[in-house]
Amino acid sequence: MARFASANSASTRFADPRSARFADPMSEMNTTPLIDVLLVLLIMFIIAIPVASNSLPIDLPQPCIEDCPPLPADGVTNKITIDTGGTIYWNGTALDQARLTRTLAAMRRLPVEPELQFEPAANASYAVTAQVLNVIEASGASRLGFVGNERYRQFDAE
How many CA within 13 A on the CB side of residue 113? Predict the structure, then answer.
């Protein structure tokens, strides 16, 4: 009977639900090694990738130290307009393309180039507008501005 009792006591010892042999299996994965490896890889990539620099070389004007020339006065503007009939106007005076070429050449010879404003009418001929822009470009005018574009912010389809 002692033998039975010892066998019985041994079986009760292993049948204890708190023992490791009968414990529930772990259902979640151990992510600690995975996180450690990912952190090491992240640090390696941060060190290996060079710092990206988005810089553009810009020649900034140098400050005038002494004997600075005065800034030119910007009070002169000339306006070229084109009406719906294709007539070219220089400050309100009608002229043709040949005279426009001569006028632009005379303007370029001035000591300070005046501002040139270009304003074609909404229904002006595209061909005439393109020809006038070609004449302006060929003249070498560097101070050209398009005025009146704010009228066309809203586009009404008919």
Answer: 14
